[in-house]
Amino acid sequence: MPFAHEVDFRIYGEEMQCVEIELDPQEAVIAETGSFMFMEDGIEMDTVVGDGREQGLWGKLLSVGKRVLTGESLFLAAFTNVSTGKRRITFAAPYAGKIVPFNLAQVGGQIICQKDAFLCAAKGVSLDIALQRRLGTGLFGGEGFIMQKLEGDGLAFLHAGGHVLERTLGVGEVLRIDTGCVVAYTREIDFDIQMVRGIKNMLFGGEGFFYAVLRGPGRVWLQSLPVSRLASRILQYGHGARREEGSILGGLGNLLDGD
User: Fold this and answer.
1) What angle do CA 32, 161, 119 make, to 5 degrees?
2) Strand locations in the chain, DSSP E?
3) Phi and psi dihedrals of 178, rounded to 5?
4) What is the pLDDT of residues 92-144, one digit of tens each?
5) How distant, in Å, are the alpha carbons of 113, 195, 200 from that of 209?
6) pTM for the full model?
7) From the DSSP assignment, how many helices (H) and strands (E) are in the chain?
8) Domain positions in the chain
9) Is CATH 3.40.50.1220 correct for 8-225?
């Protein structure tokens, strides 16, 4: 595997973040299509299949198939500094949350992440799919079934919704997590699915039927607001009248609850 380009970066913002990446001459970065914000003169863009490392027709077709499984665009954008000096390019997060930088060389050369978490990475970082090995995980894992695998020794940037928590798990230590709240974890982590106990909890708890169960040792990154949860709440408010809008209080009810 070729070494990834060594890029410098700076993250701006709080809730709506963007990352500025500094490229030396001939350095390049790959990014999800639609994440580009702006760049300085001297950087050229090229649309590539997969992560741009595939060779031959079969390799490109296999990469396309993997991208289809993860629900992402079939292509990535590659940005290369073709000038003789340093140039900067900036990528923006798609929704409120945090951009999390990973130096893959410092996390064992691999990270497993949610399929919609990848934002951009130094060219040379490999993007692949990570299928969960257990049958139960595959059938009931929901968002945690098909994930992305990033490999290499360079920098990669993930985007997570809301606030991001990092936990280091000891040997045999367990966390039970909403499947959508898992952003990423290191290769040593054992990932499984566990059914919520109790019929009342399953039917009326509002948290789904299953937990993601992560067992250490290893490191785990969690997000407080999965994009699926955000989208569900927006749709809930976007269809039909709110309860108080047809009541005697009418608009007064909205004022009382802060709307």
Assistant:
1) 15
2) 8-12, 18-23, 28-32, 36-39, 43-49, 75-81, 87-92, 97-103, 110-113, 118-122, 126-131, 146-151, 155-161, 164-169, 174-177, 182-186, 190-195, 210-215, 218-223
3) -60, 135
4) 988 889 999 999 999 999 999 988 899 999 998 988 887 665 544 444 444 44
5) 22, 6, 11
6) 0.78
7) 5, 19
8) 8-225
9) no
